[in-house]
Write a sequence for this structure.
């Protein structure tokens, strides 16, 4: 049976350093687990992403580090690429933006502008008189007008709701004045019907946290979102004599289409599964949805149905991991210190799928010792004492105890990997319980009986496919044991 075609992607990292563990344990690892799980079921998966080079965070970080933004992008790409390789993240493409990308994005937005999707408005924006520049997105900070948390202009990381630069409270951290600026806006309220229809027919909110943002936002008039800004950083456009650069947040949606090659998807494209932090929820649910609907109606592109799976925050000392704020544990360092499968397992087990989760290296190491290292060591010792007969997997009458346990474990993995109930935390828990039950059965049942051996070896062999999305090295080791299966008893170590 031929599988379907899926797209998988994670929120593109702002290239201001390596992945921090919050981004890595959330969107990055989750998207890889999902892609591997879909492939396990026979589906084709296009899994691609790039760095988010046009975010204003790049400029603010470069200023703080006293370096050139382009040099920072190149260095960050090198670091994040190394982390993806170290963790065996199975992307089919990961790269930086380039001239061809810029032209594609510019063409997409220009086509929408020609189709009448945007409105030219004069708005008041904060202006740094000393620098002679408008302050937008990361250039402007203050208090969120919705939840009062410290926020940057655009979207509040704490509550996920949208704000314009002029709406921030207590933002007098520098001498600013408000000046009028002519910019192109995406009036979401004007397109409410198209957005509502697109949400109903082409978008699924994979978790309740995003559904709450959608409901809360739809309950009020929808805001207008800047499509262009009067700043120099970004992809330049000029429409009707008004020059600016494309807002990097709406750009992300078009970037997904470009890197995944989905503007003209193959017939039967099932879904584009997007993994994001909850702070990106508003843009994903409303701005990306509006762009998809308007492009579809204008005949510019036919984006595939989207499923958005959000995660909450991995916290360090009660605060969200943040590169720009210095609250970080770097992914590559953690992966190198802990090891690939161990890191993937513990990050999945502690993943903030549905609520914020506190993380420390000490607690991670304690969890690894208890749930990973010790059970696997004891299992290797049990196998050394009574070597499993790998040929017993073909025995026609395995012990029913093992078959019942395998059915239950398989169902648990399947639920974790199913898109409707997807959870890396649940998948890691399923792996830990599979090892616990294998150890329990192998050390308490009569393994001299061929029926017991047959059941145990089937239970072991199942890890070759069930465990691959979480711990690919262990899954590959198990698979290799059975590729040239010996006809006699042989010791097995995992």
């Amino acid at each position: 049976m031929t599988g379907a075609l899926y797209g998988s992607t994670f929120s593109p990292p702002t290239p201001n350093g390596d992945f921090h563990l919050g981004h890595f344990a959330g969107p990055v690892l989750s998207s890889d687990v999902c892609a591997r799980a879909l492939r396990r079921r026979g589906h084709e998966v296009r899994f691609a992403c790039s760095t988010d080079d046009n975010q204003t965070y790049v400029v603010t970080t470069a200023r703080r580090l006293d370096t050139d933004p382009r040099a920072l992008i190149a260095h960050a790409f090198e670091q994040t690429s190394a982390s993806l390789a170290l963790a065996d993240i199975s992307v089919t493409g990961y790269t930086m933006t380039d001239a061809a990308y810029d032209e594609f994005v510019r063409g997409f937005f220009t086509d929408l502008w020609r189709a009448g999707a945007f409105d030219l408005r004069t708005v008041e924006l904060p202006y740094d008189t000393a620098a002679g520049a408008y302050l937008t997105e990361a250039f402007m900070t203050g208090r969120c007008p919705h939840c009062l948390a410290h926020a940057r202009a655009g979207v509040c990381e704490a509550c996920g709701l949208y704000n314009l630069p002029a709406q921030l409270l207590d933002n007098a951290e520098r001498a600013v004045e408000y000046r009028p600026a002519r910019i192109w806006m995406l009036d979401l309220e004007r397109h409410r019907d198209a957005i509502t229809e697109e949400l109903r027919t082409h978008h699924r909110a994979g978790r309740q946290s995003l559904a709450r943002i959608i409901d809360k936002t739809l309950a009020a008039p929808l805001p207008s979102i800047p499509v262009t800004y009067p700043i120099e950083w970004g992809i330049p456009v000029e429409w009707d004599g008004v020059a600016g650069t494309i807002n990097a947040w709406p750009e992300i949606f078009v970037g997904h289409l470009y890197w995944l090659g989905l503007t003209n998807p193959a017939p039967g494209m099932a879904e584009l599964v997007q993994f994001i932090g909850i702070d990106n929820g508003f843009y994903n649910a409303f701005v990306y949805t509006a762009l998809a609907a308007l492009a579809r109606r204008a005949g510019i592109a036919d984006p595939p149905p989207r499923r958005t799976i959000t995660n909450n925050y991995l916290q360090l000392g009660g605060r969200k991991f943040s590169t720009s704020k210095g609250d970080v544990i770097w992914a590559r360092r953690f992966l190198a210190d802990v090891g690939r499968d161990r890191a993937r397992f513990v990050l999945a087990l502690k993943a903030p799928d549905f609520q914020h989760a506190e993380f420390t290296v000490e607690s991670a190491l304690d969890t690894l010792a208890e749930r990973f290292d010790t059970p696997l060591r004891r299992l290797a010792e049990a196998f050394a004492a009574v070597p499993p007969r790998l040929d017993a997997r073909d025995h026609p009458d395995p012990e029913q105890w093992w078959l019942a346990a395998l059915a239950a474990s398989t169902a648990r993995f399947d639920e974790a990997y199913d898109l409707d109930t997807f959870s890396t935390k649940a998948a890691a828990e399923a792996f830990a319980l599979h090892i616990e039950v294998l150890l329990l059965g192998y050390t308490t049942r009569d393994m001299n009986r061929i029926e017991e051996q047959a059941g145990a070896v089937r239970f072991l062999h199942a890890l070759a496919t069930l465990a691959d999305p979480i711990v690919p090295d262990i899954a590959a080791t198990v698979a290799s044991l059975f590729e040239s299966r010996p006809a006699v008893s042989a010791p097995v170590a995992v």
